[in-house]
Design goal:
This protein is mainly β. The protein is 11% helix and 30% strand. Strands 3-2-1-4-5 form a 5-stranded antiparallel β-sheet. It is globular, with a radius of gyration of 16 Å. It starts with a helix and ends in a 37-residue tail after the last strand. The model has no long low-confidence stretch (mean pLDDT 84).
């Protein structure tokens, strides 16, 4: 039994990425109330159920890619990936954002039709396919 399934979260967290970077397209952004009463900028992604609450580091990274006006982030692509950070003297899992590597994602305006999928090799594990991460 996976503890992350027992205690699901409203927002994206590091275990949701299952150890893989994921290329996503921002569908909207809004301010959300957190449990402590603070407000946090949250971005949502096309085809995904959970949004990502942004900290200053991730917000600054997206702003460096697409400008500081969050309304201009809609339709833009980023890569989210699991890593660790030092938080209060402890190494803690986290999610970071970066530019999508060149050629890793089709243009949002006019994606080319996908070729017919090749049969999966015998050793293929769909649970470890980064494009099959459900969050």
């Amino acid at each position: 039994m996976n503890i992350n399934n027992i205690f699901p979260t409203k927002f994206l967290s590091e275990p949701d990425l299952q150890g893989h970077p994921v290329n996503v397209t921002i569908s909207e952004q809004c301010m959300e109330a957190m449990r402590d009463g603070s407000q946090k900028l949250v971005i949502c992604f096309q085809g995904k159920q959970k949004g990502l609450g942004l900290n200053k580091t991730n917000a600054d990274m997206i702003a460096s890619l697409y400008g500081p006006e969050t309304d201009n982030w809609t339709g833009r692509q980023i890569q989210i990936y699991p890593t660790t950070t030092d938080f209060k003297g402890k190494v803690t899992p986290c999610i970071r954002v970066r530019a999508v590597p060149a050629g890793a994602m089709a243009p949002a305006a006019a994606p080319a039709p996908a070729p017919a999928p090749a049969p999966a090799p015998a050793h293929f594990d769909s649970d470890n396919d980064p494009d099959n991460i459900p969050f």
